[in-house]
Design a protein that fits this description.
12 strands, 157 residues, Lipocalin, 1 helix, mainly beta, 8-stranded antiparallel beta barrel, 15% helix
């Protein structure tokens, strides 16, 4: 009886493990507020990512590089993304590598195409909560999670 119980538990673990791993996957989709420190100073670019499987695409926006199309990869807790930009007439590939931290933030190093390096952190920009609904008589005005105005009329009672 003990062997059959062990076999049943093994089968259960082998059946549920892939689903648990899929749920544990990191999803970096969203808008990230970054802090970058290099030998040339600091910056606070915005990074907007969309994740599809292990691939990342998106936009990097900063005062130094403007808006740049980003590509990247995610493997477990490791993340890398890059873009090609022009600085002082020269083309360079900017590469960010790092990890997803326990609190969900990102942290790593940046290579500025051989023209310098630095460190960076990023936090997901959480949208502000919508304001509370206002109710007056038979009319209720509020907002949806996406920020659209919602108007509800109560039936005359």
């Amino acid at each position: 009886m003990t062997r059959s119980l062990i076999r049943a538990m093994r089968a259960l673990v082998l059946t549920l493990a892939p689903a648990a791993l899929a749920q544990a996957r990191t999803d970096l989709t969203g808008k990230w507020m970054m802090s970058v420190q290099t030998d040339n100073g600091t910056g606070t670019p915005m990074l907007t990512l969309k994740q599809n499987g292990d691939s990342l695409t998106g936009t990097y926006a900063s005062q130094v590089f403007g808006n740049q199309a980003v590509m990247g990869t995610v493997s477990g807790k490791k993340v890398a993304f890059w873009f090609t930009a022009s600085a002082e007439g020269q083309s360079l590939r900017v590469t960010y590598t790092g990890t997803v931290e326990a609190d969900g933030s990102l942290k790593g190093t940046v290579d500025l195409g051989g023209f310098g390096s630095g460190t960076w952190t990023a936090r997901l920009d959480k949208p502000a909560s919508p304001p509370p609904a206002v109710e007056s008589g038979r009319v209720r005005i509020g907002t949806t999670a996406a920020g659209a105005v919602r108007l509800q009329m109560k039936a005359a009672g």
